[in-house]
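Preliminary data (for renewal application), heme C complex.
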Amino acid sequence: MVSLQYSIKKIFNSSLSTRIAALGVASLIFVLASGVVMAMKDGDKSFSPYVDKQGRISLPKDFRLKMVHLGSFFVPEGEASGFHDVYAEAEAVLHYRKNGTFPDGATIVKELRPSQSGDYTTGKNVSHATSDIKQWFVMVKDTKGRFKDNSVWGDGWGWALFKTNDSSVNVSQDYKKDCLGCHAPAKKTDWVYIEGYPTLNKP
Ligand code: HEC
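Predicted structure:
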């Protein structure tokens, strides 16, 4: 302790260059330490930046800017009515175009927006999405069966649903109950309704 106080005193009394060097070393230690903490928090980065060690899935931030629009479905009526806009990473699309499969770690986001229609110079009863959001669905491809005891993982994907009041929490707890039945018609195409995503086709 005494020697630490002594060295701090020495740094303060030392020349400007020594002080700058000491500051540099201190900042380097800080940067390295925060890197380690972040890596621990984010889990298996090499798998997916949106999945932590326990298999908790998060909604990708800024996905409209960072991901590619695969295509949209339009649901005319009912609870899910409006536009279903679907996004995935550009690398996932390139992999799909080449191999016909989604690569490990691929993320698919589906955003639901209400619609409004009116008469435009293009025609009558033209629909567009509004800026409101209903909810988001996310699927993360897992070719290795990483989270066997986690009920939001299985059949090759992680499955998540986010509500607008808290986009950090996956409100679905069991994909077999909440998702799989409705995706059964798309089982042959890895549970994904690929007919709605022309971006996956070769240009
Ligand atoms: C009521 C039936 C229904 C339920 C429940 C449902 N889905 Fe879907 N999902 C669909 C249909 C149909 C599509 C494509 C057409 C559309 O969006 O209307 C789709 C599309 C998606 C897409 C875009 C990629 C794709 O597969 O085409 C994602 C991502 C998705 N769903 C995730 C989920 C997750 C995660 C759950 C569970 C939390 C879930 N869905 C529950 C019917 C459903």
